[in-house]
Amino acid sequence: MDSNRREVLVPERAPKPLGPYSHGVRSGRWVFTSGTIGNDPATGKLVPGGVAAETRQALTNLSGTLRAGGTSLTQVVKTTVFLVDLGQFAAMNAVYAEFFPQDPPARSTIQVGALPGGAAVEIEAVAVVTETHGD
């Protein structure tokens, strides 16, 4: 890929965006994802089960976006986690640790007033693409 070109990423099994944005964009050797909530791709609705279930689904959805950009969770260098209630940090963090068991990326966690669709958690990421994938 030309380092000056940007490619909009459309994951195979992804919930439809809730607004005028892309799931992610690849530019050169970098993938930037939009904030991802715990929507079930089949129904487009939040998965039941609270912040832990939503975190698991959000990271699964995020993984699909990264795959569409030629990278993966192991190549994430930075995440930002938005939580409606920082009192739910431990529940989110336990699931997050399952997805990043070794050498986790840099991370910021921010409490927000509300998230799209009534979500409890939203996660965005920046990842590096380590293979050329025909570039």
Share of helical residues: 10-25%
Q: Which strand order spans the largest sheet, edge to edge or round the barrel?
A: 1-2-3-6-4-5
Q: Biggest β-sheet: count, sense, barrel?
A: 6 strands, mixed
Strand percent estimate:
25-35%
Question: What does this molecule look like?
Answer:
By secondary structure, this protein is of the alpha+beta class. The protein has one domain: 60s Ribosomal Protein L30, Chain: A, CATH 3.30.1330. It has 2 helices and 6 strands. The protein has a 6-stranded mixed β-sheet with strand order 1-2-3-6-4-5, with helices on one face. Helix 2 links the parallel strand 4 and strand 5. The longest helix is centred in the middle third of the chain and has 19 residues. It is globular, with a radius of gyration of 14 Å.
Q: How do the helices and strands line up, and which of them pair or pack?
A:
Elements: E1 6-9, E2 24-27, E3 30-33, H1 50-68, E4 76-83, H2 89-99, E5 106-111, E6 121-128
Parallel strand pairs: 4-5
Antiparallel strand pairs: 1-2, 2-3, 3-6, 4-6
Helix pairs in contact: 1-2
Give the key terms.
135 residues, alpha+beta, 60s Ribosomal Protein L30, Chain: A, 6-stranded mixed beta sheet, 6 strands, 25% strand
Short structural description:
With 135 residues, the protein is α+β, with helices and mostly antiparallel strands. It contains 2 helices and 6 strands. The protein has helices spanning 50-68, 89-99, and strands spanning 6-9, 24-27, 30-33, 76-83, 106-111, 121-128.
